[in-house]
Design a protein that fits this description.
This protein is of the alpha/beta class and 336 residues long. It folds into 2 domains: 219 residues, Rossmann fold (3-Layer(aba) Sandwich); 93 residues, Glycogen Phosphorylase B (Rossmann fold). The longest helix has 16 residues.
């Protein structure tokens, strides 16, 4: 049965959003969808059935008519998100999504959106949209500092990156160059689109703020042919009664403002035991308060006691919290 569109949304400008499957990408798309809905747009978010629960949970009742999910059918494969997938296997997910071009084209034909906003990792979506006369715009969910650095390194390697405050050290730079060279030479990455590819519309949305990253936005614009529109940073407005959240927030209330470090490497980074031990020793030696969110692959069945140094919790005492899931913080103390 076709979805019934409320009268006040029938003449609204229709936008189809197509995020990459990782939560760190879906979340900024959802935040932008709410901002567009507040301005009278009708938004559809295209993703897989596995992402449906995550997306629907993040759509408040007030947006239930203006923001909806559209399911993209994929080739028959095991459950497909990046939630428990090593980063070096992401190309499999990218390739599978690309194989769904025809299904994506059908969605566009049925919905007839006025605009497609796609993730920078899904460059092929622009071509599918343009074939139907639909304009498409890239959305970059990482900050301008990181994006401008990688663009500079890959597209303009002869130009020295001018901002020394984020310039990697010699060891980091060597590893980064090796990673870039390996990625570009491996056959398994042949089907992965160029995230820096130019499009018919040289306007790029970016999840950042000019107040925070104005100089990096200006530098990237000067270095490339793109006009960048910063759409702000995603803000969590969820309310939770989770016991772990309450305990951490109560603990934050007992310490001074601006005295706490928040440590997290994202939901696609899984550290080795040795790496976790080094971070633990560093936090212990730093003598500052901290919240450290760690991630384990579900199939590994590890726990915190298995990977942290012996008697680590006894030595840090009440100075830190180590959690194996994300918490929602609503106090001002943590310093990212």
């Amino acid at each position: 049965m076709a979805t019934q569109v409320p009268p006040k949304h029938r003449n609204a400008m229709r936008v189809l959003m197509f995020p990459w499957l990782a939560y760190g990408h879906i979340s900024p798309f959802l935040d932008l969808a709410k901002k567009l809905a507040d301005r009278g747009f009708s938004v559809r978010i295209c993703s897989t059935i596995i992402s449906r629960e995550t997306i629907n949970k993040q759509i408040p009742e007030k947006y239930s008519a203006s923001i909806k999910m559209v399911e993209l059918c994929l080739p028959k494969l095991p459950k497909l998100t990046t939630n428990d997938l090593p980063v070096n296997m992401d190309h499999i997910v990218l390739k599978t999504l690309k194989l769904s071009k025809s299904n994506f084209a059908k969605i566009l034909k049925n919905l007839k959106p006025d605009l497609v906003i796609y993730d920078l990792l899904l460059q092929w979506a622009e071509g599918v949209a343009n074939e139907q006369g639909i304009p498409a715009m890239k959305f970059v969910v990482i900050g301008a500092a990181v994006f401008s650095y990688f663009y500079n390194s890959i597209r303009k390697p002869e130009v020295e990156f001018p901002f020394q405050d984020i310039y990697p050290g010699k060891n980091e730079l060597m590893k980064l160059n090796e990673l870039i060279a390996k990625s570009s030479s491996e056959e398994e990455h042949d089907d992965v689109d160029d995230p820096f590819a130019e499009g018919n519309i040289q306007i790029m949305l970016m999840s950042t703020s000019r107040t925070i990253e104005g100089k990096y936005i200006d530098y990237f614009t000067k270095l490339s042919n793109w006009k960048v529109i910063p759409v702000g940073l995603p803000i969590e407005n969820r309310v939770t009664n989770d016991v772990d959240n309450a305990e951490v927030i109560d603990w934050l209330g007992t310490i001074d403002e601006n005295s706490t470090i928040f440590v997290s490497f994202g939901n696609e980074c899984f550290l080795s035991k040795e790496e976790m031990e080094e971070i633990a020793f560093g936090l212990e030696l730093s003598n500052v308060n901290f919240i450290w969110v760690v991630r384990f692959l579900e199939r590994e069945k590890r726990n915190l006691e298995d990977v942290l140094p012996k008697e680590f919790f006894e030595r840090i005492g009440e100075r830190g919290r180590v959690l194996d899931k994300c918490v929602l913080l609503s106090r001002p103390e943590p310093t990212p």
